[in-house]
Amino acid sequence: MFEVLFAGGWLMLPIVACSILALAICANRLMVLRPQLVTPRGLLAEVWELTRSGTMTAERLKVIRSSSPLGRIIVSGLNNSRNGRDIMKESIQEEASHVIHDLERFLNPLGTVAAVTPLLGLLGTVIGMIKVFLEIMAQGTGNAAILAGGISEALITTAAGLSVAIPALVMHRYFQRRIDTLVLTMEQESVKLVEAIHGDREVDIH
């Protein structure tokens, strides 16, 4: 393993650093973007029952807000529900923008890793081939070991860059899709809350 890293030259260092960064981001987002943590099932029904029965307290609101991103949005809407439908919807949208920003945290660095590591691999390829041609110019084609070293450096960095970039790109797309699904769920729950409080008809929020 270490022999391969050394054979790839100094450009293997940033590629390895990118792989560690991508792995850390993926582990973090897999833990954070779990549906049961972001949009807990039954939360809206619980909040509506407490609100309708008049047993909702400031302490309970604080607990709900800190429990999940969906809780933040619901509490923001409840706190402005007395100001009318439009103000309530605006407060929900404003809080939702902050929640989405938090959900998308670290995705830009992950996308950067997916874009940069193939270029690092390509740069390693170019440097390796330059070394090969310089050796050919200096010594001719008789020294096969030196030529093989330059070619192997070129191939190793290319393979390493792609090996990091491909999983990083796949996970970036996966996390984006998961966030879109979570945002859609939060939007549906928020609409139900607004309709339950200010709507003219019964809304099934279970």
How would you describe what is shown here?
The chain is mostly helical and 206 residues long. Helices cover 83% and strands 0% of the residues. The chain contains 9 helices and no strands. The chain has helices spanning 2-7, 12-32, 35-38, 43-53, 58-67, 69-79, 85-103, 107-139, 144-198. α6 (69-79) runs antiparallel to α7 and α7 runs antiparallel to α9 (144-198). The longest helix has 55 residues, at 144-198. The chain is rod-shaped, with a radius of gyration of 27 Å. The termini are far apart. The model has no long low-confidence stretch (mean pLDDT 87).
Q: Largest beta sheet, briefly?
A: none
The SS-based structural class is: mainly alpha
Strand fraction equals under 5%
SSE ordering: HHHHHHHHH
DSSP helix count?
Answer: 9
Radius of gyration: 27 Å
Question: Which properties best describe this structure?
Answer:
single chain, 206 residues, mainly alpha, 0% strand, rod-shaped
Quick rundown:
By secondary structure, the protein is mostly helical.
Task: Present the secondary structure layout.
Elements: H1 2-7, H2 12-32, H3 35-38, H4 43-53, H5 58-67, H6 69-79, H7 85-103, H8 107-139, H9 144-198
Helix pairs in contact: 2-8, 2-9, 5-6, 6-7, 6-9, 7-9, 8-9
